[in-house]
UniProtKB/TrEMBL annotation:
Signal peptide positions (record): none
Organism: Halomonas rhizosphaerae
Alphabetical list of Gene3D superfamilies matching this protein: Tetracycline Repressor, domain 2 (1.10.357.10)
Protein name per Swiss-Prot or TrEMBL: TetR/AcrR family transcriptional regulator
SUPFAM superfamilies: Homeodomain-like
Residue ranges occupied by any HTH tetR-type domain in the UniProt entry: 17-77
Keywords from the UniProt entry: DNA-binding
Keyword Secreted: no
InterPro entries, per the entry: Homeodomain-like_sf, HTH-type_TetR-like_transc_reg, HTH_TetR
Length: 195
């Protein structure tokens, strides 16, 4: 009898986890399609095929469901890690490789980034994840700064941060530039500062 109870409990736990995953997946889809601002708990429930109360059983509020969505989306779409090519590329070549990798990443994930940037100021649940990503980009830009010889010119750090930003990529993409050309443009900005 105890074995049957354990089997039932495991089955129930698996069902709860499956429902939770459907809710997170529905949230990710809606964020890409209509944006976080227009994503309601009712819409999430409908997309996941559950009741609103079920969403709240798994997530106490919008912030919790958005945090789970962000975490899962970043697992599926991790940003580039410049450490992967740091040993093979140095100086400007490392910066160029990093910019190209981020620009390819932005191109592949632009629907979510466009929606997140558009809605972040109006959706409190998005502000912490967006700040965390900006911090990540700041750390990447500091690493790139070191690869360029760590000059003290503050304009170099500002240019690196600007070059890594999604909004910069989106602005240059709207001008019809491809990722390689964008990276070369930012490298030219940097070379103008470093001589």
């Amino acid at each position: 009898m105890a074995e049957k109870r354990r089997y039932t409990q495991r089955k129930r736990a698996a069902g709860r986890e499956e429902t939770r995953e459907r809710i997170v997946e529905a949230t990710m889809q809606l964020h890409e399609e209509v944006g976080p601002r227009a994503t309601t708990i009712s819409a999430i429930a409908q997309r996941a095929g559950v009741q609103r109360l079920t969403v709240y059983r798994h997530f106490p509020d919008e912030t919790a469901v958005f945090a789970a969505c962000t975490s899962r989306w970043l697992e599926l779409h991790p940003p580039p890690d410049p450490a992967e090519w740091a040993a093979s590329e140095a100086g400007v070549a490392h910066v160029r490789a990093t910019l190209r990798a981020f620009y390819r990443y932005y191109r592949a994930t632009q629907r979510m980034w466009r929606a997140a940037h558009r809605d972040a100021s109006e959706v409190p649940a998005l502000q912490a994840p967006m700040a965390a990503f900006r911090d990540h980009l700041r750390q990447v830009s500091e690493d790139l700064h070191e690869h360029l010889g760590a000059t003290e010119d503050p304009r170099l750090a500002i240019t690196l941060q600007h070059g890594l930003a999604f909004t910069t990529w989106a602005s240059l993409e709207a001008q019809g530039l491809d990722d390689a050309v964008m990276a070369e443009l930012v490298v030219a900005w940097l070379e103008g500062l470093t001589g």
